[in-house]
Amino acid sequence: MIVNERIWTLFKRNWQHTLTYWSVFFSFGLCIAFLGPTILDLRCQTQSTLQEITYVFFSQQFCLLIGSSVGGIFKRTLACALSALFISTLLISAVFAIVPLCHNVLLLAVAMAVAGLAMGVIDTIANIQLVKTYQKDSAVFLQALHFFIGLGALLSPLIADPFLSDTNCVVGNGTGNGTRELDHLRNTLAGGPVRNLSKYHLPMEGEVVTQVSYAFWIMAIINLPVPIAVFALIQRERLTVCCSPSSPRLLEQDELALKAQGAGKQEPVPNDSDSGGHGDLFGCCRNGDLHGLPLSFFGVHILGGMVLFMTDGIIGAYAGFVYTYAVAPPMSLPHKTAGYLASIFWAAITAGRLVSIPLSYRVQPVYLLIVNMVGVIVTMLLLLVLHTDSLFLFAGTFLLGLCLSTIFPCMVAYTEDILEYRGCVTTVLVTGAGMGEMVLQVLVGSIIHSKGSYSFLLCDMIMACVGFTLFFGLLICHRMHR
């Protein structure tokens, strides 16, 4: 049978919850990928400098990290979780609709900060709720969940592309920036932090000629069914008041029936409200006896978060700076050719998560993690050895994306299984991944600027080795954990 019968039974019992969580991650993907391609048109719209417009990246990324850290607070009850998801997805649609009206860079930064908070809350809650729903069988559904991020991230630039300006979108005296120079600048800015922006001379005053507003309004309409789906689930569960524990919850009844069916004796299903102290990053152990917890309990949290700090840091740094590396010596690829590398990388991540969906119910997450972590190191080593081979740069980019694609969902499934699905470790993992993507991207950008383009691959190799060492420590910690 193509689909495992047990997995299919679980899905049929909780199909509406599962599809809703997958749809909110599609919303997450839409929002995370649109800023890079549209950044130059948004600069024209706000008539700001290149340096000012890059701060918009920071506002989104920083608030995403805050949202991830505090998002677990809303998992105390199913009502709170779904209410937070409804508000967050609605905010994302609102931000898409409002961005074309932001003619000041400060207003745009505030809008992106709001979107970042909403994305962080979505990231934490959707992962936690899927883990709580499927527990030991959550790996396959987590792989599908993260596939929808990639799907949204692939669709967002495709929607924006027809509306991007081919030439400078602020028409002033002496404007002569061609398509090639703007494509190079757009790909460079999409990486995040950029230095030496003063060498690019783009006018700030003049007639603004851009149609990027239509792209944002289309994305707002595409995203609108997502909050509607969350609201429909709230109505189905009869959860009209946030954090109200008195409403009947159909999902808990399904979980109880499944446990009674799969075990010889019926075990009580933990109530969300009983585990309220395990949701947010700062209250994970607030309701627990800290003196009664083994050191391995904290080790799993710390090491799991640090592994994702490194691996998601590699994702952020590689996607951000592979273009910069490719156009610089010794590779010196044409700008248009190098521009495909980031797209290939994200396509490989999406494809890897799609392929891993059937693998996840046949192979335990820990074995997938071992294969992927070793694959990242081997691929980075080959990229270093063949650093002048432009053909292998494309092949290695695809292989690296495949290896990195499943690490996050597998780590969530693996660590939550170790710690009996408390939900706290997912918040730590999401926060650690977000910190790695933000901090290491800035760090690698600074090193490339001071040491040269070759240091880009060396930095990624070091991060991969450190990540594997931390993962080996996590395996030892698992054996020690009671």
UniProtKB/TrEMBL annotation:
Organism lineage string: Eukaryota, Metazoa, Chordata, Craniata, Vertebrata
PANTHER family, per database record: MAJOR FACILITATOR SUPERFAMILY DOMAIN-CONTAINING PROTEIN 4A (PTHR23121:SF10), SODIUM-DEPENDENT GLUCOSE TRANSPORTER 1 (PTHR23121)
Keyword field: Membrane, Transmembrane, Transmembrane helix
Topology in membrane: Multi-pass membrane protein
Gene Ontology cellular component terms for the protein in this record: membrane
Domain of life, per lineage: Eukaryota
Major localization listed first in the record, in broad terms: membrane
Protein's UniProt name: Uncharacterized protein
Residue spans crossing the bilayer: 21-40, 52-71, 78-99, 105-128, 140-160, 214-234, 302-326, 338-359, 366-386, 392-414, 426-448, 454-477
InterPro entries: MFS_trans_sf
Subcellular location: Membrane
Family affiliation: Belongs to the major facilitator superfamily.
